[in-house]
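ok posting inputs for the uridine-5'-diphosphate-glucuronic acid job
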Amino acid sequence: MTNHSQGSNAPVRIAVIGSGYVGLVAAACFAEIGHTVTCVDNDEAKIAALQGGLAPIHEDLLPDLLAHLSGTQLSFSSDLSTAIKEAEAIFIAVGTPSLDTGDADLSYVESVAAEIARSINGYKVIVEKSTVPVYTNEWVKRVLVRNGVHPENFDVVSNPEFLREGTAVSDFLHPDRIVVGADSQRAYELLARIYEPLTSGSYYAGRTSLPGKRSTGNPVPILHTSAKSAELIKHASNAFLALKISFINSVANVCEAVGADIAEVAEGIGRDSRIGPRFLSAGIGYGGSCFPKDLKAFCSVGSQVGVDLKLLHEVETINAKQLSRFLAKIRSTLWTLKGKKLAVLGLAFKGGTDDVRESPAMKIVEALLSGGSSVTAFDPAAMPNAAAIFGDRISLASDPYAAAERADALVILTDWKEFAELDLERLKHLLRYPIIIDGRNLYRPEEVTRHGFTYVSMGRAPASPATDIGQAAAHGSLQRN
Ligand code: UGA
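and the output
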């Protein structure tokens, strides 16, 4: 059912357990909409940094929120027990990484539930914010009861989060919907009170509210579902988005085979309002800390309940093949990898973030290195995280142009906005050969070839200037600049 909350707008005392992407952004945004929030983590160094005003992740708008709210609406602590005692609502936002079996590792959730049981001092609403499989709600309840908590003293609610890294704050404050999976009306009402500034639109009327697609006249709908449905909504949403990406990548491969252009095809498909234009960008496949892990966990839920989610296995297979296809494109453009000096733009799993977890860009760099190429890379935010993995196996540049200097080709791996606005003339003079291999389709082929480049992208035929240097490249007779 869809409701607009009519609950009171009194601030709620909230504890958020876990200061990762979801926990930290949720804590800051709950404070931003008027609640009193303590964000707890057992990583004391991280808490000390947060108390000192440092954001541990690269996330647009987050440093501003932390600067405004820390010490007033928002505090950071490693004292879980006190935070639990003081809170009316406790959001669990700890990690749920993949086990070798593909299942989500719920041991962090379990130990937080046991910790809550030890410190509980009155009725609390415990909210699953981490991405968890169906039935986690039941298990959290069971852990509390086993640890001696009376069922009247708590409710467990599933309130999945749909924010994307890079736009997390804006996604949180201007969401498409808020899903509250609550089997108890009392717990639902507390969650409705928490989100009231967004569902009534009152937040958007404030002079200092962060702008976005929502407004007082267009507030956020809240969906009240069962706890199990909410858990499934999260897994099914991520699975569907991943499916959309593998679908468009498959269509891109057909486009290449027949000489069509995936950008035109995606636009034509996306104009159908039943399909929609978003998540139809062909590329080197999806990565990140969510889709790969959540797909595996959802398939595992399926097999546990006797449903073979074959479709999603195929989505994973297509995604993995997309990387090999891109590597094959690099090889067919450069002929051999050994001894090549390559300029790589992008290491993060997508633009706008410093996150390199399951990053297709990192996998491609690894493959280029194993093939004997040397790599000089630039990423606006992810270089420290990449350096921690590659060490001195790659060189890091101070900007895209420094990366391009004397390189045999430029390889674009992440869709940072700034990579779509490069000075192509300047690049051409820096590179040894005017070749761009673009895994993210950031340019229109005619624009790049006009500057004399050979341009290889996804779901489109390779494009070369009139001098046809691409053909020359394929046959090993490159002309040096
Ligand atoms: C994803 C979901 O989009 C969020 O709704 C969800 O809350 C989040 O996971 C989560 O479960 O926590 P995120 O992983 O931050 O968010 O990033 P996305 O923007 O979804 O991108 C995921 C991957 O798909 C990236 O590698 C991106 O480059 C790729 N992608 C995305 C494409 O290849 N094509 C597209 O059209 C869109």
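notes: The CA atoms of residues 198 and 220 lie 6 Å apart. Residues 1-7, 469-481 have pLDDT under 50 and may be disordered.
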